[in-house]
Design a protein that fits this description.
The complex is a heterodimer of chains A (584) and B (79).
Chain A lengths: L3 E6 L4 E6 L2 H4 L3 H12 L13 E5 L14 E6 L6 E6 L3 H7 L2 E7 L8 E6 L2 E6 L8 H11 L4 E4 L2 H4 L7 E3 L8 E3 L4 H7 L2 E6 L12 H17 L8 H5 L4 H7 L21 H11 L3 E4 L10 E5 L5 E3 L4 H7 L8 H14 L3 H13 L8 H13 L2 H6 L3 H8 L6 E2 L2 E2 L9 H9 L12 H6 L13 H18 L6 H6 L1 H15 L8 H18 L12 H4 L13 H7 L2 H4 L1
Chain B lengths: L1 E6 L16 E4 L6 H7 L9 E4 L2 E3 L10 E5 L6
Parallel strand pairs in B: 1-5
Antiparallel strand pairs in B: 1-2, 3-4, 3-5
The chains are: A alpha+beta (584), B mainly beta (79).
Chain lengths: 584, 79
């Protein structure tokens, strides 16, 4: 049998396998989840209501033998955090297993009539609906252990207490190769969308799966070889290169040097304690404590291996992974320079099922609002228990930055479309600010990572403080990203292929080889724009206007040290970024 | 004259003993460029992707001035 759409109806507790419609057959990953959401979800529906759906899909090449670093799973739906379309993708074990079961995408819809909670088990023989009573109220570390013992060597997708409470900052966890939570489709509250379906967890067992059919083996191999060579050659992605040795937190000191590391709720671009929470500090602590590791792979077949396992003070493995965004959000943005606090707080996020970016920003907002002082690590760690227990304060914090800002009367709110900004200050790095403002996803660095040329000198060099050409730069990155998010490849392959043309061509050839869809490098941006257009039109139908493509007011008025810059890109320039949607 | 120099991540091996986040004062002749400073420090040019002078992008041919802070950065990215 060819690929199928698996539709799981939680109202009737029935699963059906459907042929893939022609329009969906040409997409994978983000292109596919966004297409399905656009076709099947009413943009005006309530994100927590019966008409929203949770859609997830492996990428075009996910699950194929030895396609490097291609185990991503895209999750989509209407976001409770932004009110717009959302695609959030994760590494971990699920993508390859879904693909090997021949699943093009999974659509979870409806809500149980009996209001009970279930976990689902997907195998080659179908889907079973199991009572989730014994999992309820548990964090994801326990859920992975309980389900991992009953269903060994499976992928486990799940939600923590935050998803059970349908909080807007609830993410979806995917287990890693060690069966630990931490690979999160974190952004945008899709954990709540899973929760309202009455689904606590989804087990994927690919035993006996037919595997992924490859249309043109020769082309696939040619492309894979070129892409693999580019990843292995590039100083950033090769073994013992920057990402492998220091993880994504290699960026902490660099953004700090550039004056673009948001500090104490985006009130400065330089944090005096940055070095203590940097990738270099993590690597040193791991070596000194003799436990944990840098260079950890989040899914089988990754050859970049930028993840880490960080040990606690006693040398016991504690948590995976502390990303750049995580150590920034929980650390610098809260004025905290204690790496052990960051590790424990990351564990809490993984367990409760919270996006670390939104969680860190939320704590910073509570600090700005006077609930606790900036730098108060002991006070901050207690807030996670409030969320876990679902106290009134915890439920406010679990709704994210906008709700917390309202609760504490703060006007300095670093969000776009209701989603909080990641670890790059728009006033110091203008292109990423354009991405935050205009992407259909809400403030999201991964949606158009202009940091590569603006800070890292990857894919060219552009002055981060200049406004010039930033609209075009952001759109080019947004379109290319939408394509890469559809391949199933990790977005980090972008770094080598931006610098090595053969790698870029190889990526596209591998996709063409697997899918049989004719495409070349020239098709990448048009295909990406096709996806962006769908997402944009969904948001417009949901009620978004040009006014939703704006950075927050305070960034236009407050100078950001050390460069003392304000946001000066005009609204007209921002509107031009997506002007083509209705012009083409 | 003196400049303050720092290196990050994989470049730290060329300034052994420098603590994470630390910097060193280096004596240089007036008229020294960023590129000459890089060679003086024995930093392999192929491993230096970006240089920042006083927190802004600099070019190798830019002259350094007394009191400047110069940061040498290898290929980095992430997020």
């Amino acid at each position: 049998m060819g690929k199928k759409i698996l539709r799981i109806n939680m109202t009737d507790l029935k699963a059906t396998y459907e042929d893939v419609p022609e329009e969906w057959a040409r997409w994978g990953g983000r292109g596919l989840t966004s297409s399905i959401v656009c076709d099947e979800v009413d943009p005006t529906c309530h994100p927590l209501g019966p008409n929203n759906k949770l859609v997830f899909a492996p990428g075009w090449v996910t699950g194929t033998p030895a396609a490097p670093s291609s185990g991503r799973t895209s999750f989509g739906g209407k976001s409770p955090l932004t009110g717009g379309i959302k695609e959030s993708n994760a590494g971990g074990m699920s993508g390859q297993k879904l693909a090997k079961l021949g699943l093009h995408a999974v659509i979870v819809e409806g809500m149980p009539k009996d209001k009970k909670w279930y976990y689902l088990v997907i195998t080659k023989d179908g889907v079973t609906f199991e009572a989730a009573d014994k999992l309820m109220g548990k964090g994801m570390y326990d859920v992975d252990v309980i389900l991992g013992e009953k269903y060994p060597k499976t992928a486990i997708i799940g939600i923590g207490q935050a998803g059970e409470m349908k909080l807007s900052n609830a993410g979806i966890s995917v287990n890693d190769p060690e069966n630990k939570p931490g690979r999160y489709a974190g952004r945008g509250g899709l954990g709540a969308v899973m929760g309202v379906r009455g689904v606590k967890a989804i087990v994927i067992d690919d035993t006996g799966g037919e595997g992924v059919a490859i249309a043109n083996e020769e082309l696939m191999k040619k492309g894979r070889k070129a892409l693999t060579a580019a990843i292995r050659e590039h100083a950033l992605t090769k073994k013992d290169g920057g990402l492998n040795a220091y993880g994504t937190a290699i960026l902490v000191n660099i953004l700090n040097e550039a004056g673009g590391l948001p500090t104490r709720n985006f009130s400065a671009g330089h944090f005096e304690g940055a070095a203590k929470i940097s990738g270099e500090a993590m690597a040193e602590a791991i070596e000194k404590r003799g436990a944990g590791t840098m260079g950890h792979g989040c899914h089988p077949g990754c050859i970049i291996q930028c993840s880490n396992i960080f040990p606690d003070e006693d040398g016991n493995e504690l948590v995976s992974v502390i990303e750049y965004e995580t150590t920034w959000a929980l650390g610098a943005n809260c004025g905290i320079d204690d790496l052990d606090y960051v590790a424990h707080a990351t564990y809490e996020c993984n367990d409760i099922g919270l996006d670390t970016i939104e969680a860190g920003n939320t704590i910073a907002m509570a600090m700005e609002g006077g609930l606790l002082e900036f730098g108060d690590a002991k006070g901050a760690i207690k807030l996670f228990d409030e969320i876990r227990k679902g106290t009134p304060l915890g439920r406010i914090l679990g709704q994210g930055v906008v709700a917390t800002a309202k609760a504490f009367g703060v006007h300095r709110v670093p969000t776009v479309k209701g989603q909080s900004m990641p670890a790059y200050e728009p006033r110091a790095v203008k292109g990423i600010g354009v991405t935050y403002a205009t992407t259909p996803m809400g403030a999201d660095h991964t949606a158009g990572y202009t940091i590569a040329p603006e800070i890292a000198g990857v894919g060219g060099k552009v002055d981060p403080l200049s406004n010039e050409g930033k609209g075009e730069l952001s759109l080019a990155f947004q379109a290319t990203t939408a394509y890469i998010d559809s391949t199933g490849y990790c977005l980090f392959i972008a770094f080598p292929i931006l610098d090595i043309a053969e790698g870029f061509a190889g990526m596209v050839e591998s996709v063409a080889g697997v899918t049989g869809i004719e495409m070349t490098g020239d098709d990448v941006v048009p295909l990406g724009k096709e996806i962006l257009k769908k997402e944009r039109l969904f948001n417009e139908a949901a009620g978004f206007t040009a006014l939703d493509d704006r950075p927050p007011e305070f960034m236009r008025e407050e100078k950001l040290p050390p460069h003392n810059e304000v946001w000066t890109i005009t609204d007209e320039a921002l509107d031009e970024v997506y002007g083509w949607v209705h012009a083409d | 004259m003196q400049v303050e120099v720092t290196v990050f991540a994989t470049l730290r091996r060329y300034m052994p003993g420098l603590p994470v986040g630390g910097s060193r004062q280096i004596d240089v002749q007036p008229g020294t460029t960023v590129g000459q400073l890089m060679l003086t420090l024995n930093l392999p040019p192929e491993e230096v992707r970006v240089v920042m002078r006083n927190h802004r992008h600099a070019e190798l041919e830019d002259p350094v001035e007394d009191g400047d802070r110069i940061a040498f950065i290898p290929p980095v990215a992430g997020g």
